[in-house]
Amino acid sequence: MKKVAVIVGSISDKEQIDKGIEILEKFGIPYDFKILSAHRDAEELNVYVKSLTPDSCSAIIAGAGMAAALPGVVAAHTFLPVIGVPMKGGALNGVDALYSIVQMPKGIPVGCVAIGASGAINAALLAIRIMALNDKGLEQKLSDYKESIKTKN
Hints:
By secondary structure, the chain is of the alpha/beta class.
């Protein structure tokens, strides 16, 4: 099974993105987790993203706060689907990151989900949906999961 790459720009984002990682683990999806800032670790980020190929990776989840450059920088260096997760924090509590991610320039698409931990969960589920396009077993797990959350708030 292919993996999902999960990247955050700062250790302070880990608690929020962990909720998405829990979903990947629940579904048995292999993943890589990296802390790589688009600004402080630009070279290392570039090398890592370019190492992710369609043969080994299905999607990239990139969580970032404030200016939230990370998802766009990642998308600029790959053709893999990139799902941006705006992280809560800063003066605008994640709204600035949301605007940053949804306003990527044309030609550099980044999918964007909700702010914070709930967004991380949806990012993981979106990555799993992408994977389920070619995996009937995973499609069934998603169907079962959807049924299981009907009675939960």
